[in-house]
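hey m, so remember when u said the C-alpha cells were messed up on ur end? i reran from scratch. heres the input so u can diff it against urs
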Amino acid sequence: MKRNPITSAVQKALFTGFIASSAFGTVALAQDSDDDSVEEQGKITVTGSRIKRSDVEGALPVTVITREQIELSGESNAADFLRNLTFNNAGSFRPQSGSSAQAEASLNLRGIGSNRTLVLLDGRRMAYAPGTGSNQDLNTIPMGAIERIEVLSDGASAVYGSDAIGGVVNIITRKDYQGVEIMLGGQEVSIPSNGGEREEGSILFGAASDRSSITMGLSWNDREIIFARDLPWSAGTGASLFGNNFSTVGPNGEVTFGFIPTGNDTFCGFADSTPFFQTADGGLCRYDFTQVSADEASIENRSFFARAEHEINDNWSLFANATVAETTSFGRYAPVPDARFFDDPSNPVFFALTPNSPNNPTNPASPLYDPSLGLDPQPMDWWHRFDAVGPRDSTVGTDLTDVLVGVNGSIGNAEVEFGIRNTNNVRTDVGRNYLLRSVAQQLIESGEYSLADPFANPDALQRMRITIFRESKYDQNEYYGNVAFDVFDMANGPVSMVVGAEYREEKYLDLYDPQSESGAVGGSAGNSAGGNRDLTAFFFEALVPVLDNLELNLAGRYDDYSDFGSEFSPKVSLRWQPLDNLTVRASYGQGFRAPTLPVLTQQPSFSADSVRDPVTCELAVGDPNEQCQINARVIANQELQAETSDQFAIGLAYEPTDWFNMTVDYFDIEIDNRIRGFSSQNLIDFPEFAPPGLGCERDAVGRITQCIRGSGNQGVYKIDGIDYNFRFNYELFGGNVTNNLQVSTINNQQVSLADGGISDDFSGDDGFPSIRAVLNNVYAYGDWSVGYNINFIDGQETVGSWVTHDVQLNYFAPWDGRFTLGVRNAGEKFPPIDQGNQGSRDYDFNLYDGYGRVTYFRYTQSF
C-alpha cells in the first residue's frame, strides 16, 4: 500500500485529523504523502494570518486543497479546477472567443465580483491581468507547480489589503522536492462534434544538499478552438440585422430604423457565393453568424517555475521564486458588421449614400434598384456584413515574468523576513480582417465595392481590409518586510505579534492602434487607458491566549494610495475550544476595495452589446423575445470612490469520532458605496438607477439607438450564507474510504439604494444559484484507487438544477508509475440551453460548460 499516495494520505489523515476540502470533494489529507504530520512539522502559517501556529483549525475558515485532490479532479489547468469550487457560487469568466479578454480566466467567490476575490501566489498578490486591469488571470498559474491551494472564505483586507472582500485564494508552489516527475495526458470531449480536445503535461525536478534546495519544472496545457456551428444548440441560430439592408435617413440626417424590404433575390442574390446570408421575416437580409464564429477560443499555456533556498548560516536563509508563463490564444468572430453609426455632422467621413450612388437602391441606374418599392431617389443608409473581407481573427499572447528574492532569519527571538519582487505582465492582441471605415465608405459610395456582389473586386477588398493591434501591460514592483516576535508571556502562553510594511508600484497601460482609437475601424471595440499608482501599507497582527482554550486575534492594515486616498482595515477574531474535539470560531472585520485603474482612465470606446429589449430586437432579429446587438459607448468615471465592507463570520469544527468530522460556517458581507459596472442590459432593465451620464437613448418609437455605460458607486450590497463540510474516513474490505460533502449556500442577496429602495432577495434568480455542492467518494486499495463525485448546481428562476457525475480510476505501478483514466460528466449532461442568465451565449457561460462527456488519460512517472 505504500506505493499508493492516496492510501498513505488517507491513513495519515486518520492519524492527524488534518482537515482539508476541495472542488472535487473534501478529502482529509495531510499535505503531500511524503511530508511529516503537522505536529512533527511544528508551527505553520495558514492563509489569512501572518502568525505561525501549531493549530491547523484556527479562528478563520480556511480550506486546504492538496495536490492529490487536484489530481483527483481530472482538470488539466488550475483555472478550471478553481472555477468548480463550491465557494464560486455564481461561476466566473472563462476563455471565450468574441471577448476582449478571450484568453483570461477569473474567480468570483460568493458571486459578488471577480474584482473582490484576491488571488495570491505563495502569499504574495498576483498582478492584475493586463487585458482587464481589475482581476488576476488564473491561466498564468502553472498547474504542475502547485503543492496545495488554501482558500480563505472570509474577508482579509486587514491582512492583504484591497480586493480581499469576497475571499482569498493562495496558491502554494511545490518545494523541497527531490527527484524527477514526468506527467503526460490528453482529453477528449463529446460536445462539440469537432474541436475542444486537450493536451497536458509537466516535468518536475528537485534536488537538495545540506544547506541548499531547488525545485523547478515545466507545465503546459492546450485546448483546441470550438466553433459555434459544431455545437448542437448553436448551429443556425444566429440572426443579425447586419446582412445587406438599407434604411431611410431622418429629416436631420440621422440614422433611423426605417428599413425598406430587401429580402429578395435582388439584394440577397449573392447567397450562392456567401451561403451565410439568409432571407428572414420582414423582407430583410440577415446573417447567420454562428456559421463562422468560434464559441471558445483555443488556449495554449506554457510555464516555467523555480523555487530555491540556501541557508547562509544557522540563522539566515536566502530564497528565490520565479515564474515565467506564456499564453497564446486564437479566436474567430464573424466578419465585420458595420453601418453609418454615431452620425457626427462635424465629421465629413461618415455620411449616407447619395441618391446617385451605384449602391443606392433608390437610384434607377443602380443594379440594386427595385421599382416595385416605389421610392424616389433619396439618401439611404446601409447595414452590411463584410463577409468578403473575411472573418475577424484574433491572436492573443500573454507573457508573464514574476521574480521574488527574499531573506528570512532571526535576530534574537524575533523572526525577520524581507523581499523584493518584480512582475512584468504583457498582453498583445493582433486582429486581422477588420474594416477601415473611411475607405469602405468611399468604395461603397463610388460603387467600387458592390453591395450586390461583394466578391467582384478583390482590389477593393484589399484596400478596405486592415490589421489592428492592442498592447496591454500591468507591471508591479513590490518591496516588503515584516518581523514576528513574542511581546510578553501570559499565564496561557506568549502574546505573539507581527508588524510589517509594504510598498508597491503598479503600472498599467492598455494601448490601441491609432486607427482603432479614432473610431476609424469597423468591427473593433475598445479604447486606450493607462495610469500608474503606488501604495504604501503598514500592518500588524497580534495573537493573545486569553485562556487555555480561548485565543484572541487582532489585525489591522493602513493602505495609502497615491491616486485616491487611504483606508484603515481592522479585524478581530476569536477561537474557543470548549472540548478537545470542538472548536468554535468567530470574526468581524472591515475591508475596502480601491477603484481600478481601467475604470478611472479608460478613453471612450465603442462596444456591440448583446441585449434583450423587445422593441429593438423585434426589428433587429424578427423576434421580441430573442437577444440582439445594440451600439454602446463605454466611458470612464474619475469620480469613483473606494467601497468599504463590514464582514462577520461564525462557525465551528467538530470531530465527534475518529472517522467523522465536520465544519459549519456562517458568513455575512455588507458592501457600502459599492463600485459596480452598469451594463447595457442593466440600463435597459433599471433606467431609474442609472448614475448621471449613463443610460440608453431611444428613437421616437422606443428602439435603442445607443447605450452609454460605465462604472459608478451605488448603494449597499448585502449577502449572507452558510458553508457546510462533512467528512468520513474509514476502512472497508482492506482499503480506505473517504466520503465528503461540501455545500455552500446563499441565504439572502439584496441591494439597498440611497433613495431607500431595497431590491428583492435575488438569491435563486437566474445566474445566482442558492446552493452549490460536491459529494466526493474515494476508495483506495493496494495499488488501486477509485474516485466518484457528484456535482450539484441549484436551480434558478428559469432553469432547473444541474447534476453531473465524475469517475476516476488509478493504478500505481511497481516502477513508480501511475496510470489514470477518468470521465467527467459521465452522463453527458447538456448545459441548460435558452435558460438562465444567458448573456451573449445560449446558456450561462460562467456557471456551466458545454463540453459534454470529457474522457481523459494521464500517465505519471517518478524517478
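this time it looks ok to me. The radius of gyration is 29 Å. if urs says something different then somethings off w ur setup not the seq
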